[in-house]
Design goal:
There is one protein chain. It contains nine helices and eleven strands. The strands form three sheets. A seven-stranded mixed beta sheet has the order 4-3-11-9-10-8-7. Helices cover about 25% and strands about 15% of the residues. It starts with 10 loop residues before the first strand and ends in a 25-residue tail after the last helix. By secondary structure, the chain is an alpha/beta fold. It has one domain.
């Protein structure tokens, strides 16, 4: 007997096999309704972004803030069975709340960039995944660099491996049988090399579990290509910045490591100000998935402590002195650009 698809209650199937995350712990679909994200929460985000701009400026760095839009925000018309009010999308509400604030000049409107790009280009998101395609990540990267005032690399397309691969993403794997698509390969030739990985990353990779490295992961990349921008960038981000170009799930870290002389990636929604004080970057990027805006980032979190907590949860380190309030959320998938 032919198996009947068994979709998760957290995933909606739209037109032509487009899959959308609607539930989960962040109750994604509810964020588009009323009340959606509370006004007080958006006010807090306004203050957080403005504070990051000011504190980075005191360190001699330029702060930019990017929210990775949900697939529903950009392609909601492909899910006609859902009651989605695009104007209530958290990223669009935040854009309005940032108007005339000190953080307005730091905000990278990826939602607007994606809406403009979707009309005359390849898909920006994978059909079976909640993340971007190669094209989507390139659009996001160019928008971020534009806000920084940095010229994008013009030669990357010629360095791409090309081709497609059979792939089932984080949404497609919630079905039985799983949903498969042919996704563009994201790999490209680059002189960017990883020069540091913290214990969390290194230990999981050594055990063949690099895909489990997420919250608390910390890596540094060096690019000696003469065409690379000579400045230093520190990224605080999530799965939209995971560390690999060798996956259909294209990410910002790989593209930005190909752009700058030195890139530091810390998987955290919090800013580690002590780390920035030591590294003294030229640019700081705070990236967060739209669905995670529902949770404000913890304050004063050091990347070493976050990595220690992550190792304890995975059984790789003793869970000593771990308090119940030391929590953070993230998307549990990452890999390494080697």
């Amino acid at each position: 007997m032919t198996p009947v698809p068994d979709p998760s209650a957290d995933v909606h199937e739209g037109r032509d096999g487009w899959l959308f995350l609607t539930g989960g712990t962040n109750r994604v679909l509810a964020q588009y309704g009323r009340p959606g994200l509370p006004r007080a929460l958006l006010w807090r985000w306004r203050r957080i972004v403005a504070d990051r701009v000011r504190r980075c400026a005191r360190l001699g760095a330029t702060y930019v803030h990017a929210v990775a839009p949900e697939k529903l925000t950009v392609y909601g018309d492909q899910a006609p069975g859902l009651a989605v009010d695009p104007a209530r999308a958290p990223v669009r509400r935040l854009a309005r709340w940032l108007t005339a604030s000190a953080g307005a000049r730091a905000f990278v409107d990826l939602d607007a960039a994606f809406r403009a790009a979707r009309e005359d280009g390849p898909p920006l998101y994978l059909r079976t995944d909640s993340h971007w395609t190669v094209h989507g990540s390139e659009v996001a990267c160019r928008a971020i660099l534009s806000r920084m005032g940095v010229a994008p690399r013009s030669d990357r397309e010629a360095r791409r491996t090309g081709g497609t691969v059979r792939f089932s993403g984080d949404l497609g794997r919630k079905f039985d049988p799983i949903r498969i698509e042919h996704a563009p390969v994201a790999a490209f030739a680059t002189q960017a090399r990883r020069i540091h990985a913290n214990a969390l990353l290194a230990e999981l990779e050594a055990r063949g579990r690099g895909f489990e490295a997420h919250l608390g992961a910390h890596a540094v990349f060096r690019n000696d290509d003469p065409a690379a921008d000579p400045r230093r960038l520190v990224i605080f981000g999530d799965s939209f910045c995971q560390h690999t170009a060798h996956s259909p799930v294209a990410t910002l870290t790989a593209l930005l490591a190909d752009t700058f002389r030195e890139v530091h990636f810390l998987w955290s929604t919090s800013i580690d100000w002590h780390y920035l004080g030591e590294v003294r970057p030229d640019f700081v990027l705070g990236e967060i998935a739209e669905r995670f805006m529902i949770d404000l980032p913890p304050r004063g979190f050091r990347i070493e402590r976050l990595a220690e907590l992550a190792r304890a949860r995975k059984g790789d380190a003793p869970a000593s002195e771990i308090r119940s309030d030391e929590t953070d959320r993230g998307f549990a998938r990452s890999n390494i650009l080697s």
